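Moderator note: this is an archived Q&A kept for reference. The question asked for a predicted structure of one protein chain; the sequence and the answer are reproduced below.
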Amino acid sequence: MKTHQTFAVLVGFPVIAALAACTTEPTLTERNFGKSVRQMVDAQTYDPSTLSTPSTETIESSDGRRLENVLETYRNDVAAPAAVNDDIVISVDGQR
């Protein structure tokens, strides 16, 4: 192969590869972005018809113990921003 042909191949291939990467067609990842979250929400929904037509009625009653647990969890875990700054410790075989 002649020198100018080798040079053309070595320079031309990266240019073609770079131009192919600039395509406007969305990649498989972009087309499926968020699909796993939607599948999880669908799987955890008790009544799937509420996803398309949610109820507009207000909740008038609930289990008191459940609400107490929700408030307690919120007060202890969610409202504790200092815990966010704690170090992450990964323990293998009980060693630090």
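Archived answer notes: The two ends are 60 Å apart (CA to CA).
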